[in-house]
Amino acid sequence: MRAQKEPTTARVSGLHAYIAVVLFGLLLLAVWHSATLLLRGVPPPLSQSLSRIGIVFVVGYVLVRVAGLTRLERKALFTVGVAGVIVVGFAFFARHVLKWDVMVSPAVGFGVVAVQFMGVGQVSLVGLLVGLSCGSFVEGLSFGAGAATAALIGRKIDTRTKTVFAGALGGVAQTTVLLLLTLATVDGWTPKRLALRVAWSLGGGVGWGLLMTGVLPFIERIFNLATPMRLRELADLNQPFFRRFLLEAPGTYHHSVLVGSLAEAAADAVGADPLLARVGGYYHDIGKLTKPTYFAENIHGQSRHEKLSPPMSALVIVSHVRDGVEMGKELGLPQPVVDVIAQHHGTCVVEYFYYEALKEARANGSTRVDIARYRYPGPKPQTKEAAIVMLADTVEAASRALKEPSSARVAELVHELVMRRLLDGQLDESPLTLREIHKIEQTITRMLQGLFHTRISYPSREETTGGMA
Question: Which of 144, 227, 256, 426 is paired with 132 by a 20 to 30 Å CA distance?
């Protein structure tokens, strides 16, 4: 049944995406038409308008059918739409009011922003739409090239200097395409005019790259984006939040740091996002801060669960996921990190208290226990990173109970726990393949074996001196 619905769902999503792209293109053309009418007093030629409308429909089709743009969130539509309108408006303002060349338009800024919501190939096509709304066909193609180059680097920006680097390379790409197309298609060009256009293009790329170093942090916060730069900031363990975490729940803190390290290595092994996996590992258990002394890693002495019934204990344990999601939103964590917090237990059973409830039920002559009361609410992991954090969390916590953590016993434990999650269906909704799950198991095993390595026994002072002082 599910297999039959998936193609229909994909077609509907593709249609919605196509309609959204066409409306986006037509909006840009409306801005272009209005600006031309306002600044020149006459509308653009009908042939230009019709040809650009045709290009909008063609590019929209290519985006959906070839580039695979089948799903657009409202946040992405709004952000890319606003960025596109700003670009077109700025291009007209620069050309007709400031008397600048249109090639100073922010292709670099558009590429860096748009790539946070879509792929590089998709950005280049959307950039083409935006560029054609700014000027000629040559300008549109060069704008698309600049946006695509900036997007290629912008998707992995983790330092401020890389933003400037993306701007510089975007400007070079924009300039190269502009130069070649102008020489090939434009008649009557002069070296002076061509040199000025090249200067505007290069200067615009570097200038917008510099500007984006200051603008991008605000975009990250406003739209709650999980950019590499934002994730690196969140991974800083010297933040006041982590100091509080260490003081109030030291056991959970150290567990989370280890889970983050395991998840990062496993994500790198299967081509997932290592930085997102590490940050997800660091924050996955922050909900335990509300009741830290109810969790085993923070308990010293008598357990508080001894005074609670199994259902109440399970409720306390399960609630740390909901508390973590609420705390993550209060901290302003990006949605992918909040999703890891919500999904890292899936719909697993709190087994210890479930079996305690079974014991009590049998002692009272019954065998009926509602297992739903002992399950986490879910959802199951939807991404590779969330699934990896689930496995790393499970294995790291269980490995603490190993009395003699030899390499063989660690490998056996990791395999058993990974298979348990797999057979329980907890990984069914994640995009991980069986081969990737095997790689994750191998990576986590290797790292835990290194963590539990044995040391040689150093001789005592008496042994080294033969009992002589």
Answer: 227
Say yes or no: 219 and 233 in one domain. Answer: no
Domain membership flag for residue 467: no
The reply to whether 169 falls in a domain is yes
Same domain flag for 118 and 247: no
Reported as type and span, the H/E element at residue 87 is helix 74-96
Rounded CA gap, 130 and 122, in Å? 12
Strand (E) or helix (H) holding 10: helix 2-40
Contacts 24+ apart (CB under 8 A), 210-215: 210/164, 210/167, 211/106, 211/109, 212/108, 212/109, 212/112, 212/163, 212/166, 212/167, 213/160, 213/163, 213/164, 215/109
Q: How far apart are the first and last CA of the chain?
A: 81
Count of domains for the chain: 2
Per the omega criterion (within 30 degrees of 0), is the bond before 379 cis?
yes
CA distance 209 to 226: 20
Q: What gap in Å lies between CA 420 and CA 426, rounded to an integer?
A: 9
Measured in degrees and rounded to the nearest 5, phi and psi for residue 375 equal: -100, 145
Residues 82 and 141 reside in one and the same domain: yes
Q: Could you tell me if 252 and 199 lie in one domain?
A: no
Residue 215 shares a structural domain with residue 258 = no
Residue by residue, DSSP assigns 371-396 as GGGGB---PPP-SHHHHHHHHHHHHH
Shared domain check, 67 and 213: yes
Task: State which residues form the domain around 180.
Answer: 2-224
Angstrom distance (rounded) from CA 199 to CA 90: 18
Q: Which of 162, 185, 165 minimizes the C-alpha distance to 173?
A: 165
Tens digit of pLDDT at every position of the chain (469 positions)? 334 344 444 444 667 777 877 887 788 778 777 877 776 777 777 777 788 788 888 877 787 776 666 666 666 677 777 777 777 777 777 777 777 766 666 777 778 777 777 777 777 778 777 777 766 777 778 878 888 888 888 777 777 777 888 888 888 888 888 788 777 776 666 787 778 777 877 777 778 778 877 777 887 777 777 888 889 989 999 999 999 999 999 999 999 999 999 999 999 999 999 999 999 999 999 999 999 999 988 888 777 888 888 899 999 999 999 999 999 999 999 999 999 999 999 999 998 898 888 888 888 877 788 888 899 998 999 999 999 999 999 999 888 888 778 888 999 999 999 999 999 999 999 999 999 999 999 999 999 988 876 555 556 555 555 555 4
Q: Domain holding 428: CATH number?
A: 1.10.3210
